[in-house]
Amino acid sequence: MKRFFAFFTVFSILVPFAFSVPLESLVSPAHAAQLQRHDNARITETQLKNPAPKLMPNNSALRQLAAGNISAINPSMMVETLYLYSKPEHLHTSESLWDEDQKVKVFNQIIAVSTLEGIQYYSLSRGSMRTFYEYSSIIDGPVSKNPVPDPVYSQIPATLTLFARQKDLTFGDNIYRYDFVTTREAVFFTQENITALTYGFIPVIGKGNLRSVMAIFDCGDSFLVYTISMAKALSVPGMGDRVSGSFSNRADAVLTWFKTMLDSGL
Predict the structure, then answer these.
(1) Cα dist from 81 to 12, 22, 35, 156, 251, whole Å
(2) Domain boundaries, the chain
């Protein structure tokens, strides 16, 4: 992971301009057609038992980043989503240039961790909507845990690491690490749990065994958002389907949050 970030630090300095890429070069023709069928379309894949990516866009940097996280934890469950966000018409760009102002706005929106507080997801166990994060804040470090405001950048850093404290009504009060990387055609971020997650009093995911990767590609008239969330859950009878179902709905809630942020900021 350190070599990955070092590579992109150098790469971003050498290549300062960001380029949009055609949707058809990132996903299969079938997936492109399905995503373009209506605005804000999404495709989701949930897997248990020896999961492997099925929806991942054709991008070598993303594949390297995802592969590193997969090999690190050997996940027992995986949720992938492809999501196509249609930009307002005045923000459409040519196929060669990703407007820098757009990129800065998108970056500042995805690092605004405090705005995740209060978002809702559909709880399978309760059969109704439920608050995802009761509390969400950037902190000054995983030990001191003092809350600090969401950072705002006028220029995107090549790499950035943030720590957050997030109180999840399902998995408790935990610390997460967020790593952000930008390249000429995409913005990537990863999430990793620094503390173990529990379900009630039952430990279900050990420290470092929950990983999520989000990739945002500019496609001219739209953003392609790909998310992959994976976990190595402890073997607890009857918990596998419950945890995987919760992860799928929670991943959907994060995408809804991201769409709302784009709607309000672009």
Answers:
(1) 27, 18, 11, 25, 8
(2) 2-265
What DSSP assignment string belongs to the chain? -HHHHHHHHHHHHH--------HHHHS-HHHHHHHHTSTT-EEEEEEESS---SS--S-HHHHHHHHHHHHHH--SEEEEEEEEEEPPGGG---SS---HHHHHHHHHHHT-GGGGBT-EEEETTTTEEEESEEEEEEES-TTT--EEPPP--SS--SEEEEEEEEEETTTEEEEEEEEEEE-SSEEEEEEEESS-EEETTEEEEEEEEEEEEEEEEE-SSEEEEEEEEEEEE---TTTHHHHHHHHHHHHHHHHHHHHHHHHHH-
CA distance 43 to 103: 24
Task: Write out pLDDT tens, residues 169-189.
Answer: 888 999 999 999 988 778 999
Contact between 37 and 235 (Cβ < 8 Å)? no
Task: Give the per-residue pLDDT at 235.
Answer: 65
Give the number of residues written for the chain. Answer: 266
2-265 folds as Alpha-D-Glucose-1,6-Bisphosphate; Chain A, domain 4 (3.30.530)
Residue bearing the bigger pLDDT, 144 or 123: 144
Q: What is the pTM of this model?
A: 0.87
